[in-house]
């Protein structure tokens, strides 16, 4: 199973396939993996020591960044993510980023789980996906309902204040007008927005 994969000069960690969402643009329904990644379907979630064993085979400082970005939501395994990120920080200077839905408070039924990332994660990319809770529900389809949108906004504010390097993303499956409203929301929060092409 592919725990690690590379795209360009970044190293990706595929820590889980579990996800509480069912995004309309999710490529998992159509594809086994990304270009060059091999299959990203895991037989099971790898243990922290299995991830660390794979990382030991890599020259981490040769990468631009290491990214937690599974075929799933990495923060389903927030405690393992933190453990692995701390290990990476202990042996290298490489930047550590996470791509997330930002709804880990609902996943773990715990307030302010974002605090766990401070000090071991350098950058956070958060899927904004839509400008309002109703529209978010249609695109992201989280099992928690509309509450997920507000949890994601709260998570993003905390990360902005306490980690600093944060970016929102939307996929161009929503309309230009919706993207404009996402930009306004992102601007209000002082967070840059990246508009991504849907993977084909
Ligand atoms: S959060 Fe990511 S893995 Fe989960 S459904 Fe959406 S695109 Fe797919």
Automatic annotation (TrEMBL):
Alphabetized Pfam families for the sequence: Radical_SAM (PF04055)
Q: Please tell me whether the keyword Transmembrane helix is annotated for this protein.
A: no
Signal peptide boundaries: none
Q: Which stretches make up the Radical SAM core domain?
A: 5-200
Question: In this entry, which stretches build a coiled coil?
Answer: none
Q: Which CDD domains match?
A: Radical_SAM
Q: Which InterPro entries match?
A: Aldolase_TIM, rSAM, rSAM_sf, rSAM_TatD-assoc, rSAM_TatD-assoc_bac
- Gene Ontology molecular-function annotations: 4 iron, 4 sulfur cluster binding; catalytic activity; metal ion binding
User: In its keyword annotation, does this UniProt entry include Iron?
Assistant: yes
Q: Which UniProt keywords apply?
A: 4Fe-4S, Iron, Iron-sulfur, Metal-binding, S-adenosyl-L-methionine
Tell me the domain of life.
Answer: Bacteria
| Stated name of the protein | TIGR04100 family radical SAM protein
């Amino acid at each position: 199973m592919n725990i690690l994969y590379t795209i360009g000069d970044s190293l990706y960690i595929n820590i889980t396939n579990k996800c509480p969402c069912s995004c309309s643009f999710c490529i998992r329904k159509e594809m086994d993996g990304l270009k060059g990644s091999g299959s990203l379907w895991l037989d099971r979630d790898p243990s922290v020591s299995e991830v660390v064993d794979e990382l030991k085979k890599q020259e981490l400082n040769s990468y631009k960044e290491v990214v937690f970005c599974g075929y799933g939501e990495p923060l389903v395994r927030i405690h393992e993510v933190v453990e692995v990120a701390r290990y990476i920080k202990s042996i290298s200077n490489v930047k550590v980023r996470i791509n997330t839905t930002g709804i880990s408070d609902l996943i773990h039924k715990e307030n302010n789980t974002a605090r766990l990332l401070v000090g071991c994660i350098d950058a956070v990319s958060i899927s904004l996906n839509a400008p309002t809770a109703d529209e978010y529900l249609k695109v992201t389809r989280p099992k928690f309902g509309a509450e997920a949108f507000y949890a994601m906004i709260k998570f993003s504010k905390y990360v902005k204040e306490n980690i600093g390097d944060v970016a929102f993303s939307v996929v161009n499956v929503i309309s230009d007008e919706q993207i404009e409203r996402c930009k306004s929301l992102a601007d209000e929060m002082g967070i840059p927005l990246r508009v991504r092409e849907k993977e084909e």
